[in-house]
Amino acid sequence: MDRDRTLTAAAVDALIADGHIIVIFEDFVLQLDSWLGKHPGGRLAILHMVGKDATDEMKAYHTPATCKTMKAFRIGLKPPGIWTNRTPPIRRGSDQTPQENPPPATATEFPGGNAAAYTDWAENREVDKDTEGFPSLCPKVQEEIAQKYRALHQRVRDEGFYECPYLEYGKELARYTTLFAASMIALRYEWYMTSACFLGLFWHQVMFSAHDAAHGAITGNFKVDSLIALFVADFCCGLSIGWWKSSHNVHHLITNHPEHDPDIQNVPLFATSPSFFRGIRSSYYDFTFAWDAVADFMVPYQKYTYYPIMGIARFNLYLLSWLHVLSAKSASLGSSKAWWIRPVEMAFMSCYWYIFGYLLLWCTLPTWTIRVAFVLVSHIVTMPLHVQITLSHWGMSTSELSESESFAQRQLRTTMDVDCPRWLDFIHGGLQFQAVHHLFPRVPRHNLRKVQVLVKEFCASTGIPYTLLGFVDGNSKVLGRLGEVGEQVRHLVNCQKYMAHFSGVDGLH
Ligand code: HEM
């Protein structure tokens, strides 16, 4: 095969139509069929890029050394000029695919075809105001943004922001050790609830380092960072980093897409977009989130249930962790280059339950009341972590605008940063620079404040709005979104009752 031939767009389309996994990287057309099942970043990360120029995504998630090896998969050169991104097959037919499946535009397209119900819905439906003020989606404009992002990325590299300031991790380690030691000392003196509080604070803090390591943002070595992440998340916290990586990588690549980003798929408890009202098929979970009576009941109150549910969110993470580690999906990773992660996770998570569940809860705590209280207090104390995770995205745009939208613009449209004084950085654990982190996921956390300055310059020069809010305003934005969508559900439920009453048509379910 002549790997220096230029492949026309039609030839690439034909290959994709034949089921080949084709991605554009720099000037090359890559065929990743044989790599898909071996990819340490999982199958979905690649499937979401089929037919697209994924240069920026690929450079953001891989070391330069890994990027060099990618050219081994080239089957030709892309045609000169700007590549017109195709919709990846995994996203075709999705409710949010631009042009293919727009929301009802007339009363006849509305469920039940009821004019009054449609008018009510149309007047009250969420308009994604968060897309206002962004640069045009014209491919030329987006290509210019991509070029500026590449120059920015080069600057981030040249100025040494990929180098980890290990001293900062020394300070982190001292903090984690102090919190854990305080918990153990309190336990020794039978101050059980104090011990539970310190243990929760330890979990809250230490998980930030698991996040850094899982992104390869500590040593930059995939195996070493994965082992750090495994030790912290699985052994110290009982949570599967393999599960977290598999969902988090997809979340980063297709942020805030209702059908593909697992981080916003929380029906029937929460809905941050009206797209959920029709029920959605999640490509990550391979599961349909049907809109049902429980969603009708819960979502209108979501702005009130947000904090209480975040308070117990950690219990759900245990469940998702074990489901992942025991699932066939995880077992199939046995054929991938990251096969060793699963057995290590099983060992570490079992150790966690032996130490926390058996030695601490069962053998050390004297009564059932104290055991239950200890579990609740230690887990609820981690609530700010769950708020912080959701804060960066839940108030932001959930629209799918156009395949031509650049990586940088998409990340800045769907992600916001939290403004805080430098001395409070440790409380947010780097997640306050979420938009900066989404642009440069492998940059060590302690450098993000400096990179933020460059990102602000980039936004000023491209005209992309940069959302930076104080913690309280950020919370208000999320609550505002939850309230808006909840209100729409209330309207829809009323419409449904109206239609059922007058015409016997069931409009929503
Ligand atoms: C469609 C394009 C691709 C996307 C979106 C993508 C995404 C990712 C992501 C998100 C990770 C992080 C995994 C983790 O730490 O859990 C990763 C890791 C990795 N990917 Fe890819 N990937 C793509 C294509 C490729 C290709 C073509 C290669 C071939 C060399 C490759 C090789 C690797 C390797 C070796 C790692 C481990 C981390 C490293 O060494 O940099 N990926 N990828």
UniProtKB/TrEMBL annotation:
Keywords for this protein: Heme, Iron, Lipid metabolism, Membrane, Metal-binding, Oxidoreductase, Sphingolipid metabolism, Transmembrane, Transmembrane helix
Record flagged with keyword Cell membrane: no
Uppermost EC category: oxidoreductase
Keyword match Methyltransferase: no
Gene Ontology BP terms: sphingolipid metabolic process
EC number: 1.14.19.18
Cell location: Membrane
InterPro entries, A to Z: Cyt_B5-like_heme/steroid-bd, Cyt_B5-like_heme/steroid_sf, FA_desaturase_dom, Fatty_acid_desaturase
Pfam families linked: Cyt-b5, FA_desaturase
Gene3D superfamilies attached to this UniProt entry: Cytochrome b5-like heme/steroid binding domain (3.10.120.10)
Transmembrane segment boundaries: 191-210, 222-244, 306-327, 339-362, 368-387
Domain Cytochrome b5 heme-binding stretches: 4-76
Membrane-related topology note: Multi-pass membrane protein
Pathway recorded for this protein: Lipid metabolism; sphingolipid metabolism; Sphingolipid metabolism
A Gene Ontology molecular function term of the record: metal ion binding
One cellular component term from this protein's GO annotations in UniProt: membrane
Region (Disordered): 83-113
Family statement drawn from the similarity comment of this UniProt entry: Belongs to the fatty acid desaturase type 1 family.
Protein name: Delta 8-(E)-sphingolipid desaturase
Protein source organism: Chaetomidium leptoderma
